[in-house]
Amino acid sequence: MDYRRVPGGMLVQEADTINEESLPMNPVTQRAPTPDESEDLKFAWRAVKHIKSNAIVLVKDKTLLGMGAGQPNRVVSVFLSKEKAGPKAKGSVMASDAMFPFPDSVEQAAEAGVTAIIQPGGSLRDEESIKSSR
Q1: CA-to-CA distance for 86 and 130, rounded, in angstroms?
Q2: In the beta sheet, which residues pair with residue 60?
Q3: Which of 8, 75, 102, 111 has the lowest tally of Cβ within 10 angstroms?
Q4: Which alpha helices (H) appear in 22-73, and where do they start and end?
Q5: Quick check: 108 and 85 in contact, CB under 8 A?
C-alpha cells in the first residue's frame, strides 16, 4: 500500500505494480498499433506514470521525446510535449496518465503526427476521442 498525507486526511492506495509486458492493450480504433508502436506504447506507459498530473509523453524508439505535466488541462500538456519533441513528434506514440475528457488532445496529437495513443479510458466522452482519431 502507498500512503500519502493530504490536508485533512490520508490517501491510501495500492501501488502501481502492473508489469508493462502483461499490460492488457485493447485497441479501440480501426487500426491496431504495429509491433514497434506497441513496444513504444509500453515504454511510454511506464514513463508517464512517474510524472505529475495531466501528464503526457511522446515516445519513439523507446526514447522520450517530449513531456508535458502539471498543467491546468491535458491540452496544454499535449502542446508542451509537441513543442519539446519538435519535428521528431512525427511518427511518435503518446501516453496519457488519465482519460481524455474531450477529443481536442487527440486531435492535437494527430496534427503533430502521433500514430498511436495509450490511455486508461473512462471518460463519458471516450467515443468522441476515438472517433476523432479516425
Answers
A1: 25
A2: 63
A3: 8
A4: 35-48
A5: no
- Grid cell listed for 77: 500538456
pLDDT at residue 123 is higher than 80? no
Q: How far, in Å, CA of 11 to CA of 45, rounded? A: 23
Residue 83 one-letter amino acid: E
| Spatial CB neighbours of 85, under 8 Å, sequence gap ≥ 6 | 58, 65, 66, 92, 112
For position 40, what pLDDT does the model report? Answer: 97
Higher pLDDT, 122 or 97: 97
Q: What are phi and psi of 13, to 5 degrees?
A: -145, 160
Mean pLDDT across 62-89: 96
- Residue 76's SS3 state is helix
- Report pTM: 0.84
| Residues paired with 90 in a beta bridge | none
Q: Is 98 left (phi over 0), alpha (psi -120 to 50) or beta?
A: beta
Contacts of 90 (CB under 8 A, 6+ apart): 112, 113
